[in-house]
Structure of YqjK-like protein:
Amino acid sequence: MAAREPDGGASVRLARRRAALVQRSGELRERLAWHAQGLQPAFEAADHLRRGWRWLRAHPGWVLLGATVLLWRRPRRALSLAWLGWRLWRRAQRWPWLAALWRAQAAPRRGQPGAAVADNTLGSFNTR
């Protein structure tokens, strides 16, 4: 019995199909970029808020100073804001997705000590 040779027609069809898919992917990528231009201001605002939040977390003394000044200048307003903050905090404790988001932001970032690094296998992580 003779050994079967690979079908040359199938590999040509696969190469053509791959080329068509690569071209289609490029077109879709361009369309997505064009449509996403309208969202750019919203993304910039979100980035600005995120940078501000990171700065506040890195400089808690300024928050404490602001709270002290508010308490000294307007004690009734400071107490009402503290009460509102407490109620919001208690309500947020009942939202597991918000707590998960908070923990994710508090986790070490890549390149920082204790950051988890994937090692090319699904589901396994090494810590540095």
Observations:
- The first strand starts at residue 116 and ends at 118.
- The mean pLDDT is 80.
- The longest helix spans residues 8-36.
- The two ends are 58 Å apart (CA to CA).
